[in-house]
Design goal:
Oligomer: single chain
CATH class: Mainly Beta
CATH superfamily: TolB, C-terminal domain
Shape: globular
CATH architecture: 6 Propeller
Distance between the termini: 63 Å
Strand order of the largest sheet: 2-3-4-5-9
Helix content: 10-25%
Number of strands: 23
Largest sheet: 5 strands, mixed
CATH topology: Neuraminidase
Structural class: mainly beta
Order of helices and strands: HHHEEEEEEEEEEEEEEEEEEEEEEE
């Protein structure tokens, strides 16, 4: 009888063992252990440290999963804020276009990007200039936009070769403008995953060479978008595979993070394949995720504690 009972239980134990191994491997793949350790460290941050940072745990979703109308045949990627127009810009890859949006996700205009192959990132630079990253061409292209611009031709624009000729579909996707140091910050998606800087591109391309930046332990599977906050000197790093938004300081060290899974920070459902992030002048965070869903996160005012507490 004991032998028969043991033979009946053995398949169950093997199943449980395999499930345990799968959970351990998945935890390592998603860096859950690193997230947990940093979460505990994050809880020890002082009010002064939080005040000096973007402090992502203080944000909540105020607009989530709003479909961006009129882009059913394409997908938004990358996101940037223009202070001059108080609007957002994104790009599409299948049918390359520059898309201008209102702050609540309404399409204002579309500008075809002729000669582009796979635009993945867009950023507002200094002096009213925009930059677009083409992942397949491995280029950063800069141009000025005005109210009369109806289309853009790649061959007519200043471009800079970003290198990594063998990167394929694992090249640069994230781009942000570091106004403090007048340079472009770039995020390479993976293989290797990393952050880089590039001096401000002039009319004839970039004035300097691409430089790797120091990074701490980012505990991310990939980098899909970047944004820079001049007030703190910190950057936001978006990862669609990790479903994570991470704040890093000037040394590339993690400062704070939030999960983009459902149930966290006011999100009813998780943000699937988050492809673009930016901040506006008021500190609101905007995210676009496939298939063309629009999100806004705002920082809640701090609640003062009663004096008797």
């Amino acid at each position: 009888m004991p032998g028969r009972f043991s033979s009946l239980m053995r398949p169950r134990w093997w199943t449980l063992l395999l499930l345990l191994v799968a959970v351990i491997l998945l935890a390592g793949y998603l860096h859950w252990d690193d997230r947990l350790r940093f979460w505990f460290k994050q809880q020890q941050s002082s009010p002064a440290e939080q005040q000096a940072s973007i402090w992502l745990p203080g944000y909540r979703a105020v607009l989530q999963g709003k479909p961006v109308q009129g882009l059913e045949d394409d997908e938004l990627s990358g996101l940037t804020y223009s202070a001059a127009s108080n609007t957002l810009f994104s790009v599409t890859g299948k049918n390359p276009q520059l898309i201008e949006l209102t702050l609540d996700g309404q399409v204002i205009r579309r500008i075809p990007l002729h000669g582009f192959s796979n635009p993945e990132g867009v950023e507002m630079l200094a002096d009213g200039r925009l930059a677009v990253i083409d992942e397949r061409k491995r280029t950063l292209t800069t141009f000025k936009l005005d109210a009369l611009t109806r289309s853009l031709e790649f061959a007519d624009l200043a471009s800079f070769d970003l290198g990594f000729a063998k990167a394929g579909n694992k090249g640069f996707e994230g781009i942000a403008w570091d106004s403090r140091n007048e340079r472009v910050l770039l995020g390479k998606e993976r293989s290797p995953l990393g952050l880089f800087s590039l001096p401000f591109p002039g009319e004839d391309g970039a004035a300097g060479a691409l430089q790797p930046l120091p990074t701490g332990h980012l505990f991310l599977r990939d980098i899909s978008s970047l944004s820079y906050d001049a007030r703190t000197g910190h950057a936001l790093v978006l990862s669609d595979e990790s479903r994570l938004l991470l704040e890093v300081d000037a040394r590339g060290e993690p400062v704070s993070f939030i999960s983009l899974s459902g149930g966290f920070n006011g999100l009813h459902r998780g943000i699937k394949q988050a492809e673009g992030v930016t901040m506006d002048a008021a500190g609101n965070i905007y995210i676009v995720g496939e298939p063309n869903l629009f999100y806004v996160l705002s920082k809640l005012p701090a609640v003062a504690r009663p004096e008797n507490d």
